[in-house]
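Revision sheet: structure tokens.
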Amino acid sequence: MKIALCDDLVEQLEQLHAAVDDFVSRNDISNVVVDEFPSSLLLLEAMENGSRWDICILDVCMPGLDGIALAHEMRRRGLKSEVIFISVSSEFAVDAFSLNAVHYVLKPFRIADFDEAMRRAVEAVGKKRDSIMLQLENGVVQAVHIADIIYIESVAYRRVVHTTGGTYEELKRTLSSFAGLLEDLAPGQFIQPYRGYIVNMSAIKTVSPNNMTLSNGDNVLIKRGDFRKLRKAFLDWTFGGHPALLEDE
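Predicted:
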């Protein structure tokens, strides 16, 4: 998780960084990178150079480009970060929430208020990471929660995504890019039992020597010779690697 802090006062940046570190430590959140910016322009420059963040914590009252204007510019440039505003006054709160800010914290902030802001932001980031965006016909973009995916198959030049809520035809993403994305989001949850297929292990009902039956009743072929390996992977995923269940027949 990448977090950006922007405040023109060095002592405020240090305080924010310490509060983030404390929250991360108490909530056992790993792999967090925090970038500090003493001005809005430096943050925008980092954006121009390709930097992106999951959460941005912005001071409202800064010289030049204030926090509200900075957030407007970030949104205009397509940054989807969760934004938390920090301010000495509540007068900008309406503007802040018009930008879909997750929280508006008043200075000097209480740890409880800061923790609530961080909790909301982290939850929002988690929800985003648990979903993928599909490119459909006529420019339509569809968000699909990965838990709702049953399986994905290649049909001609399209990928057909079968979900609990319906079936979608993805026009641009390849099956290999789907596999890489899903592995990043949910390591070990999706497997490829046969060429042209990706299956959600949580959607498997039965595994037989020739195919697997999924929660929607569809059957997917299993590559010859992979039955034992796939059965073990399925049992390991379902039952947490219980030795008695994973023992070969």
